[in-house]
Amino acid sequence: MAKDQDRYWNDKDHQLDKFTQDNKGKEMSSNEGTKISNDENTLKAGLRGPTLHEDFLFQEKLAHFDRERIPERVVHARGYGAHGEFQVYKSLAHLTKASFLQDPNKITPVFVRFSQVAGSRGANETNRDVRGFATKFYTDEGNFDLVGNNIPVFFIQDSIKFPDLIHAVKPEPHTEFPQGQTAHDTFWDFIGSNTESAHMMMWIMSDRTIPRSFRMMEGFGVHTFRLVNREGTSHFVKFHWKPVLGAHSFIWDEAQKLGGADPDFHRRDLYNNIEMGNFVEYELGLQIISEDDEFMFDFDILDATKLWPEEEIPVQIVGKMTLNRNVNNVFAETEQSALHPGQIVPGIDFSNDPLLHGRIFSYSDTQLYRVGTNYQELPINRPVCPIHNNQRDGQGRITINKGQVAYHKNYLAGNTPKEVPPREGGFSTYPSTVEGIKVRKTAPSFEDHYSQARLFWNSMSPVEKDHIIQAFSFELGKVETVEVRQRVVNMLGKIDHELAALVAKEVGVKRPNVSQVSVQQSSAALSLMNQPRYPNTLRVGVLIADGFDGDETKYVLSELEEAGLELVFVGERLGDVEGSDGVKYSIDETFLTGSPLLYDGLYVIGGSDPSRYFMRKTRNFVRDTYNHFKPIGATEEGAVIIEQMNIIGKPGVIVEREASAFVNEFVTAMAEMRFYSRVYRNV
């Protein structure tokens, strides 16, 4: 098996290079290999005559064009992907027999697709929405798909309600809007009518659903799975991805405006950083519960609307994933990638989570419809280990099977392909006990809809609570039906009185009359304000004009780059700007093509005699940056341009007096990212 793996993955470009085609410098041919002498004109009966039906080259070209788009995903349609590799830190043999989790020296290729849930392929990438985080591990025992989100819980408990949820969140059918947004009547009618969604809505209305980058958001497997070792011992597990850069988000005003400034912001950020060598890293974490402890918690561990508090069940960091290669073709790889949570390997198994069980069917069924009968044969989906079975034919078949036998058992082929006993690597389902009468009911242990929603609210900082209040107020403010707004506010009243009262006031409904729950538990792990902060790969807009101090500017900028910041030079027009001592820099973006929304902070250098246009545009950039609480640095010349704005000396606004001290202070400010104390007290 190891030799087969080496055969497929013997260089950094892996198996997909076998199917990669570079047309540069090649002779043109049809898909059947016929060389083409003229691709400019159809075959006609005379110079001005009709096109002839026998023009097979025209038919092939147009027929292929007519079919270039496969049906987009009903959910997670807007997505972007990258390749990478995974290594476990130490053997997990005590927990699982999965081969890729045994040896720290083993490198397992991976493909990750990030996505949005609600919008179509044309939706803005910075809309408020759940982000998909789906990973395909190409292990030497077959593919393992960890299909999750950047939120650890979900809207519903039973998969039979999934079509209802998606019908509600999608654009309303009588108008076909809004696109990729939840601020409309049908979505909030569903939420107010299905209170099991209360916990999920706290996450969605938080800053978690407007992430700064795919590189800076957590990932969660959502469901409860099992790990099974060679002795047959099972543990329940939840999977986590922890971004090495920490988890960070936009603020709402910024996210809205970014949708206009760059609707492709997240994919551009991922692609550019990988191309620059800023490879994207996540650590894999596991929460483990033994079989004997299944019922010891005050929540049901199989309930997908509940998380496992990290204070009770710590996350154990066990390995690292590095995304280090962009796709060669977005359609062939990202769009044709077919992931589903039912794809597991020996050592990983399912729990009785009813939402997971429905996804096991739905995802594979979706791929069969969307990509085709033989979607697993496509390069992006094909396992790296050998594949042998008696399946044949079907739409889009790539494999050419030899021999006359296509059934099991058989004599003509020596009863092959043969079954593999579990002790030799064959998959065996964990023999968990199943008993009870057939019933369509919700388990009593699933009926608490508010405790963890309250836990999430109590865990937020004052700034995050304010953002959640604003988010609910905005979303419900777009709902036209008063009764729907009231039902949701009534739901919020069972989470927190203050939250419900403030939202009720904003959206013009009555404050709910419900008793306040006295239990005030919190979890530090749930607040983004507690995430680590690093300056690495953050973007600084450098506003620069002719006549800047060459030597000092060169020193400061080189030190900022050394600290891991990405510098983007912004000026009046494209071309070079020149300072003293012959120092030159090339402008990357102009005030017209750039935007303060695209940078994590500004450094205002200016020049010896900046134009009025430069000064006016600089103040506009600084104003937006300041209002979004981001850091601003300035030389003494740059400070003159912005001094009338009355922000000098405010938190996160740093004027350069001495170069080395400025560098240290500015880098620290960039790592801080947001200075909410400009508005919020006690922050």
From TrEMBL:
<protein>
    <recommendedName>
        <fullName>Catalase</fullName>
        <ecNumber>1.11.1.6</ecNumber>
    </recommendedName>
</protein>
<keyword id="KW-0479">Metal-binding</keyword>
<feature type="compositionally biased region" description="Basic and acidic residues">
    <location>
        <begin position="1"/>
        <end position="29"/>
    </location>
</feature>
<dbReference type="InterPro" id="IPR018028">
    <property type="entry name" value="Catalase"/>
</dbReference>
<dbReference type="InterPro" id="IPR011614">
    <property type="entry name" value="Catalase_core"/>
</dbReference>
<keyword id="KW-0376">Hydrogen peroxide</keyword>
<dbReference type="InterPro" id="IPR024712">
    <property type="entry name" value="Catalase_clade2"/>
</dbReference>
<dbReference type="Pfam" id="PF00199">
    <property type="entry name" value="Catalase"/>
</dbReference>
<dbReference type="InterPro" id="IPR002226">
    <property type="entry name" value="Catalase_haem_BS"/>
</dbReference>
<keyword id="KW-0349">Heme</keyword>
<keyword id="KW-0575">Peroxidase</keyword>
<comment type="similarity">
    <text>Belongs to the catalase family. HPII subfamily.</text>
</comment>
<feature type="region of interest" description="Disordered">
    <location>
        <begin position="1"/>
        <end position="45"/>
    </location>
</feature>
<keyword id="KW-0408">Iron</keyword>
<dbReference type="GO" id="GO:0004096">
    <property type="term" value="F:catalase activity"/>
</dbReference>
<keyword id="KW-0560">Oxidoreductase</keyword>
<dbReference type="InterPro" id="IPR024708">
    <property type="entry name" value="Catalase_AS"/>
</dbReference>
<feature type="domain" description="Catalase core">
    <location>
        <begin position="29"/>
        <end position="416"/>
    </location>
</feature>
<dbReference type="Pfam" id="PF18011">
    <property type="entry name" value="Catalase_C"/>
</dbReference>
<dbReference type="InterPro" id="IPR041399">
    <property type="entry name" value="Catalase_large_C"/>
</dbReference>
<dbReference type="Pfam" id="PF06628">
    <property type="entry name" value="Catalase-rel"/>
</dbReference>
<dbReference type="InterPro" id="IPR043156">
    <property type="entry name" value="Catalase_clade2_helical"/>
</dbReference>
<dbReference type="InterPro" id="IPR020835">
    <property type="entry name" value="Catalase_sf"/>
</dbReference>
<dbReference type="InterPro" id="IPR029062">
    <property type="entry name" value="Class_I_gatase-like"/>
</dbReference>
<dbReference type="InterPro" id="IPR010582">
    <property type="entry name" value="Catalase_immune_responsive"/>
</dbReference>
<comment type="function">
    <text>Decomposes hydrogen peroxide into water and oxygen; serves to protect cells from the toxic effects of hydrogen peroxide.</text>
</comment>
